[in-house]
Design a protein that fits this description.
This protein has 132 residues and is mainly α. It has a single domain, classed as Arc Repressor Mutant, subunit A. Helices cover 64% and strands 9% of the residues. It is built from 7 helices and 2 strands. A two-stranded antiparallel sheet has the order 1-2. β1 and β2 form a beta hairpin. α3 packs antiparallel against α6. The radius of gyration is 19 Å and the shape is elongated.
């Protein structure tokens, strides 16, 4: 599997350019959850994950909604910074930005993973302490 950074750099998108777009932007978890709540938007993210840097026409292929609907879904994903778009001449390329998802996992979702891990550790200690 290809590294997203190398794919972005092949398309002429530098990590400094990506960082300048996302820096200073404070996202609330709700906007990311809202963007991820729709199955079509998750499908678009999956498509970008499999092949980053697609145009709107490429993303519309094999989707059962109109081009206008895909465009609106991309706008929601862009507002949550899950997708970053760059214009190259007449083309507009869309790139997956996994940062907001990683922030959710590290923050809000992570606290539940920690509790579950602690519960499993306590259960293991209790089972090991039982005689016989």
């Amino acid at each position: 599997m290809r590294d997203e950074r190398s794919d972005l750099s092949e398309k002429g998108v530098g990590m400094q350019q990506l960082a300048s777009i996302t820096s200073g932007t404070v996202l609330d978890d709700d906007s990311v959850f809202r963007a991820l709540a729709d199955p079509i938007r998750r499908h678009l993210l999956d498509r970008l994950h499999s092949r980053n840097g697609q145009t709107l026409n490429e993303l519309c292929a094999n989707v059962d909604v109109s081009r206008q609907a895909v465009s609106k879904h991309l706008a929601v994903l862009e507002s949550a910074l899950l997708v970053i778009s760059f214009r190259r001449g007449r083309e507009k390329r869309h790139y997956l930005n996994p940062g907001p998802i990683a922030d959710l996992v590290a923050g809000w979702i992570g606290k539940y993973q920690h509790q579950r891990a602690m519960a499993v550790a306590e259960l293991r200690r209790a089972l090991e302490a039982e005689p016989g």
